[in-house]
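We recall that each integer encodes one residue's backbone shape. We quote one record:
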Amino acid sequence: MSRILITLGDPAGIGPEVIERALDSGQLPAGFEFVVLGDRRAGTPGQPDARSAAAAMAALDQAVGELAQGRAAAVVTGPVSKEGLQAIGFPFPGQTEYFAHAFGVENFGMLLAGATLTVGLATIHEPFVRVPELLSVDRIHRIGLLTAGFLRRRGIARPRIAVAGLNPHAGENGAFGDEESRIILPAIRRLNAHGAGLFSGPAVPDAVFREAAHGQFDAVLAMYHDQGLIPLKLLDFDNAVNVTLGLPKPRTSPDHGTAFAIAGQGLANPSSMIAAIRLACQLA
């Protein structure tokens, strides 16, 4: 029986209650053992502090240790407070970068999968002003291959992936920027030469997500965090799952935060946690 780890996240947030409701939902696949890591008693709902942040960090460390020892097939991470973690010395922008560092993985990425859209991200937690300088042919090629690999793992033999432009109207032939012709198009050509899937673009960013939602593409590769997450959260807020690409073992997470304002009130929707657990099982 495959063992799936689930970290509580910050115990002052909604993590503990959405995990409990997910496990009681009857919507999880059979044949898996679900093991929850973390100390629920270390946090008071709605009142995050250093103690609750430390508990979240300890659960992450425990999960990495068990995965590294081969004692689990995948991990699902509950929502944490990045601000709270960083206040106690957590040196990473988020859990994605933490897991990549813990496993010594340099070729990693973030992908969000929902019922309507699947979105890979060329850049993750970066200030918007840095995005143009961070984009490169190699980066887009690398994330494109990771995104295609995820889709093939889900049973799509030849995935169709649209690569979004960076600028309005995908640059309009250089009128609004040259990143499309200088960086994105060469990356698409390299991806198609690799044979990992069918890549197209640079696609007009304000139209491509609608096309993907209507089934023309299996995924969109977005150039920056909010370009991809705004349409995904608009359409798939309750069922979207965050996936870290490139790790030796699957890591998924619900695509929502700690929601301290409603923690402990029975208002939290477990749908995203259910989807995250189901996807971890599928990938495992």
